[in-house]
Amino acid sequence: MRRAFYGLEVLRGVDFSVAAGRITGLIGPNGAGKTTLFNVVSGLVPPDAGSIRFAGSEIGGLSPDKVSRAGLVRTFQVARGFPKLSVFQHLMLYGRDQPGESLWRAVLGSRAARDREAALAEQAWDIARFLRLDKVIDNQAVALSGGQKKLLEIGRALMAEPKLILLDEPTAGVNPTLRNEIGERLLELPKRGVSILLIEHDMGFIAELCDPVICMAEGRVLAQGSFDSVRADPQVREAYLGRRAA
Ligand SMILES: Nc1ncnc2c1ncn2[C@@H]1O[C@H](COP(=O)(O)OP(=O)(O)O)[C@@H](O)[C@H]1O
Ligand SMILES: [Mg+2]
User: What are the residue boundaries of the ABC transporter domain, all occurrences included (predicted)?
Assistant: First the structure.
């Protein structure tokens, strides 16, 4: 897949697959194009060329909404704003077929909308319990700790009932205890039918969670395989030399 900005090629033929039922790590030096890849795959930025296949269909160039409906959801490296809503309201807002959407209400009437809302509320509670956010479910999201905000961001993604989630640095700025907790939660997801593609600069975190690991540099795949094999790869070592891992 290819993508350039103002004539500068950021993605230069990056090509790989992500297996269902796994946590795949995506690493590479700062500026390698990892976040851009997420932007293209999630529909935020169209590819210039190439193909993105998900669950048997071409999704390249689809809108973020269509990609998310297909079962592929992403989170952001820098957490977006949390409007003045409770944790519960936040989760509800990201539900699939939210009855608040006018089309739903118009087509199905208020009874069906109420039923859907009840089902979503149950799902929101399930996800809150799973992420250990149930004790703070009525708190304002803005008042959560940094780590809890990261968990809520994962919760929002899960509300869309994804098959694959793209996580961009889910532990950035989080203390080690919470980092481990986030890791434990993520390890549970493949068992619940959710696969993960994870960008992370913390190599300990990658080593604990991810198999396989893919290393990108300059818009291409440099190496892929087990964490140890990728770490030992001379090209990977060279790509990281003198740069900050990102
Ligand atoms: N919207 C954009 N406009 C211009 N340049 C961009 C844009 N998005 C990313 N880039 C450039 O693409 C390169 C790769 O960035 P990024 O995908 O964020 O790398 P990574 O996440 O691996 O650190 C950087 O040089 C960045 O400046
Ligand atoms: Mg990035």
Answer: 1-243
